[in-house]
Amino acid sequence: MLQHLITSKTRLRLLVKFFVYEGTEAYLRELAKEFGDSTNAVRVELNRLTDCGLLTRSEEGNRKFYQANPEHPFYADVQYIVRRYIGWFEFEQVYKYQKEHIQSIYLREKEDERDTYEYVITQKSGDGHIDLDMAEAVGIPIVLEDNVEETRDPHTPCFLIWMNEQQDTVPC
């Protein structure tokens, strides 16, 4: 549904990337690689979202890092809509019972349907087992992979939305 309101696929991917989890930060080339888009297409949309205040930009050396602006008056609304669009609330039911086994969470566009996503999860090495039956019960497409970066198809957008960095924080 959201893809009908936001017709730019790059803009929609940026909103999903930055508004699912508050701490997400990325730079231009990283985003272009994850999305399988040109750097120019990503730069144009980053500038538009920054100009309207939804994203903030900071510089480290010659890199410009972007992240969602929690001070924007529509931040919570955009975040809610994006989470609803990707099925985050259903996924959260699976996540909260298995978070100690999850290393990272990616979103990958389904190859057969370009406007929907599946969750790709990597689990901590040697740390229990992630139960995918629970995911099927709530109707969320989840794929378990050992190393997303090695199996990534450069033509199918797949981007990191959360990584466990020895924290007990929930990505929402």
TrEMBL record:
The segment(s) forming the Transcriptional repressor PaaX-like N-terminal domain are 28-67
What's an example of a GO molecular-function annotation for this chain?
DNA binding
What Gene3D superfamilies does this protein map onto? Winged helix-like DNA-binding domain superfamily/Winged helix DNA-binding domain
**Which InterPro entries does the record match to this protein?**
ArsR-like_HTH (IPR011991), PaaX-like_N (IPR012906), WH-like_DNA-bd_sf (IPR036388), WH_DNA-bd_sf (IPR036390)
Which residue spans adopt a coiled-coil conformation according to this UniProt entry? none
Listed A to Z, the keywords are: DNA-binding
The superkingdom of the source organism is: Bacteria
One Pfam family, please name it.
Answer: PaaX
Q: What is this protein called?
A: PaaX-like protein
Look up and give the organism this protein is from. Answer: Alteribacillus iranensis
